[in-house]
Amino acid sequence: MTICLVSSVSVAGERTGAEVVKNVTCPYCGLLCDDIDVYLEDGEISRIKRGCGLSNAKFVSEADRIESPAVREGEELHEVSYGEAIERAAEVLREAKRPDCYGWSSCSVEAQGLGIELMKEARGSIGSTSAVCHLPSVLAMQDCGAPKATLEQVRNRADVVIYWGSNPVEAHPRHFERVTRRADGYFVKGKDRYIAVVDVRETLSAKISDEFVKVEPGGDYEALQAMRSMLQGNEIEADEVGGVPVETLGELLGRMKDADFACIFWGLGVTMSGAKHRNVEALTSLAKELNDYGRCVSVPMRGHFNVAGFGQVCTWKTGFPGFVDFTGDEINYAPGENTSVDLLRRGGSDAMLLVGSDPAAHFPLRAVKRLREVPVVQVDPHPNATTRFADVVIPSALVGIEAEGTAYRMDTVPIRLKKVVDPPEGVRTDERIIRDVMGAL
Amino acid sequence: MELRIRNGHVIDPASGVNEVKDVLVRDGKVVDEVSRDAEEIDASGKLVVPGGVCPHSHIAGPKSNVGRLLRPEDGRKGTTSAGPGGGGGNFPESGFSLPNTYAIGYRYARMGYTTVVEPSMAPIEARHTHEEFNDIPIIDKAALPEVGNNWLLMRYLASGDTERAAAYAAWLIRATRGYGLKIVNPCGVEQWSQSGGNVMDLDQSVEPFGCTPRKIIEGCLELNEALGLPHSIHLHANNLGVPGNVETLLESMELASGHENDDRAVLHATHVQFNSYGGDSWGTMSSEGLSTAEFVNRNPNVTIDPAVVTFKDTTTMTGDAPFEYNLQKMTKGKYVGSDVGLEGGGGVVPFEYKPDNPVATIQWATGMEAALGVEDPWRVFLTTDHPNAAPFTDYPLIMSWLASAEERERIVSRVHPVVNRATAMGTIDREYTLEELVVITRSAPARAYDFEGKGHLGTGADADVAIYDIDPDDTDPSRQHQELRQKLQVANYTVKAGEIVQRDGEIKSEPLGSTHWVDATGAIDGHVWEDAMSDIGDHFQNYAIQLENYSVQEQYLPTGEVREVGV
Ligand code: SF4
Ligand SMILES: [Zn+2]
Fold first, then answer.
1. Which residues line ligand 1 (CB under 6 A)?
2. What average pLDDT does range B248-253 have in this prediction?
3. Has domain A70-132+305-440 been given CATH number 3.30.1330.30?
4. B370 located within any domain
5. Which residues of chain A form CATH 3.40.228.10?
6. How far apart, in whole angstroms, are the C-alpha atoms of residue A396 and residue B193?
7. End-to-end alpha-carbon separation of chain A, Å?
8. pTM of the predicted model, to two decimals?
C-alpha cells in the first residue's frame, strides 16, 4: 500500500496541452474527495492533482483488468461473447433455488438498486461487503441510534476529534487535510483542534495526533463503558480499564465534555474487534450522552467508497439495510442469517452473484469451500482470487472513472461520480450488465 | 389513450361542480370530448374527485431513510407481498410508519392520492431525496429545501440584504431542484449545533450571524413574493412541542400581515398541532388549537395544516434537531440526531401516542380543534405531518372524525379525562361535509402550491382522479363515519395521468410520476446575481463538497417538470 504522509500528491508531468477534468470525485475510500483534477492525454489519464496515494494508484496505475467475458468449461475459462455470458449468468440465477448476491461496495447506487431488483426477480438474497466491516455499526444503530453529523459540521465546529479504532492516515489519507487537522473551519482552526487516537497500536495517525491512547485488544467496550459511567458521576474502582489507565480515560472524557463540539470517528478497530456491535453501541451512546454538556457527534469511517450507498438504497427500496431475502412472498430481513458467509457456511445458498468483491480472499475457509462448490457469476473490473473458480466472468467498467453514478460519503452525503474516460472496448457498466441479466432472466 | 368515467357524482369544488356527470380523459388530461372507443368506467352511484394532494409528508430523503434504518421493527410491521393476490405492485411492501419507497406510492394510490410534497429537504442531501423520489411509483412529487438555519441566508437577512438573499434562495431552490422555501425552527437549529441550546423567542439572536427568527421569517416572506414563487413560505415555527408555544406561533403568523398575494396565502404554518399548546408545564398544558384556528379565520393570508394525532406507535422526524434531542430524553429510547451541512440538522425518535396519556390526549385534541376551528376549508389542509403525528394511511380515519361529532364524542369518552379540562373537544359540533373534505384533501393544497393541473377536474386538468364507492346523495358522513373511512381507505379506482393505476386495492400499473421543481433565477437582476454568486463561492470554502458538485444534476430528474417563474 502506498502511504503518503503528505496527503496531497500530484504526479509530476508536463502540461502539454493536456485536457483537465476538474472536481472529479475519487472512487476509492469513503471520504469521496470531489476536488480531484484529472489530466487526460490522448483519451487516457496521465496524472491527477490533489489525490492521495491511494487515489493516485486507482486513477493512474494500470491494475489488471478482466479483458473479456468468459465462462468456465472444466478447469478453464473460455472467452465468450457478452451476450452469451449474460445468458449464462441468467441461467445460473434461474436454476438456483436460492441464489445469493454479494459485493456492491465499489458500485454506484444506481447499479446497487438494480441489483436489489434483480435479486427480487430471482427470488434470492442480497447483501454488501459491510457484512465484513460496518455491519455491527448498523446493528448498533438499530439498537440505539446515534448522533450523526456531516463532515461540514465537523470541519467548521469540532474542537475535539477522537479517531477511535480508525487510522485515517493509511485508510482515508486526506481526512486530516479535508476535515480535521489541516482543515480550517469557520469556528475553529485545524491546528487548534485537539486530536486523539484510540487504538490497539500506535498507528501513523496516532503518531501525528495530540494524544495516543493505547487500548488493549478487545478492551474498547470496557473503556467506553467506563467513560459512560464516569460521565454519570461514578467512580471507577480500578487502575486500568481495557488496558487504559482510568486517569487517562477520565482526562479524555473531560476534554470531550468541555468541548464545544466533539466528534468521534470510529473504524474497524471498533466494529471488528471484541464486542463488535456492543462497542459501537457504547461509543454512540457515549457520544449521545455527552450532548448534555456540550455537543458531540459520531461518524463511521466507511472504507470502500460506496459501501454506505448500498445501505441507503437497500433501506429505501426494501425497508432494511441489506441481508434481505426475497425467497418468500414478503421481504425478509435477517442479519446473521442472511449474510453471505452464514448462508455459505450452512449450505443455505446454491449460487452466487458477486459484483465487485473477492470473497475467496476475505471469507472464512468453510464459506470459501462451499463457494467453490456452487455456480459463481462474477462481475468485476479486475480479476482476483475468486476469478480462479468463477463460472461466469463479466468485466465491468470502473465507476467514477469510466462510468458515472452516485456514491454516499461516510457521513451519507451523496456525491456524484463522474466519467472521465471510456471503458476498455467492449466493457459495460455494472448498471448495464445487471439490467441485461434481468432482461435475460 | 382515452377514458370516460361515466355517470359519477363529481365533486370538484375548484370548478364549482357537485353533480352527476361524466369525466372525460385523453392523453393524461381532462378534455371535453372523447371518441366512442374510449375505455369506460361506470361510476354510477360513486364519488368522483380529483386525485388527492398531500401538502406535507416526510416520504423521502435522509430522515425517512435513517428512520427505516433505525426501526426494522417498524419495517417488519408492514410487510406484504407483491403481485396479484398481494398488493398488486411490482415490489413487496414493508413498514408501518416508515414504508419503503414502493409502499409509499402504492399506499397513497390506494387512498386515491396522486401528488405528495416532501416538506423538508436538507439542501446538501437533496440528491438523496430525489433518488428516493425516483423509486416512489405513481405519485407526483415536489420537495421544499430547508433554509431557516442556512449560514449564508442568515447573514444576508441579518443585514437586511433581501435582494441577495432572494438571489441565493433562487439559486438554492434550483440547485436542490426544490419547489419552495421551508423554514424549520429558524435560528434554533444553528444554536443547537453551536451550544446544544435553542432559540426561545423571535428576537433571540444567534451569533456570530446576528440573525433572529423574526429576521428570517420577515425576510423570507419578502423574498418569496419578490421571486414570485408558486408556494408561500412554509413555516415550522420555533418552540415546537413545548407547552405555551402557541404564543410563538401566533406571533410568527402575525408577521404575514403586510404581505399579500392575490392567488394564495403568503405564509403556511405547518403541523400547527405541535405548535398550539397553552400552559407553562406538562401539568398545565392545554390545547390552543382553537386560538390558532381563530387567528386563521381573521387572517386570510395565512394557511395551516393540523398534523392530527391518531394514537399510534409511529416515528417522529424533523429538521428540528433540539426538539428531537429533548424528546429522546423523555422516551429514553432510540434516537438519531444529525447536524447537516452549513444548513441545519434534524433527528428521528420513535414515539407512541397512547390514548390514556394526558399529553397525547391534548395533542389529539389540539390537531382536531385546529382543523375543526378554521371556517374556510380552503385554508386548512389535511395532514398528519407523516409520520410525526401518524402515518399518512390514517387520513381516512381523520376524515371520518372531522365528519362526525358523534364519533368524536365516543373518543372523548375513551381518552384521558384531561380532555375535558384542557381542551375544547367537548364543545365543538362542527361536522365537515363531503365537499369540505374534498377541499382540504385536494383542492386547497393544490391551490396553495399552485399545482396548476391538480386539485380540480376542469378542462385541461391533469387526469388524476379518484373514484370511491360513496354515493354522496345517499351517505350521511356523520352517522356512516365508519363506512366512510373504509371507503376512503381504498378507492375503487385511482387514475393517474389518465391511466388506471389502482383498482380496489390492487396496483394495476406503476408509472413514475413527475417531480415538480421551480426555477426562479430568472427573477434576479444580473448584477445582484453576480454578487450573490461570488458570495456563494466564498461560502463554499467551508463545505467539504465542491460548489460545482453541489447542485443536483439532470440525471436525478428523469421525470422532472420545471416551473419557471420571474422570466
Ligand atoms: S482520501 Fe480517499 S477519497 Fe480522498 S483522495 Fe484519498 S482515497 Fe480518494
Ligand atoms: Zn413535517
1. A 26, 28-29, 31-33, 51-52, 54-55, 172-174
2. 98
3. no
4. no
5. 135-300
6. 43
7. 40
8. 0.97
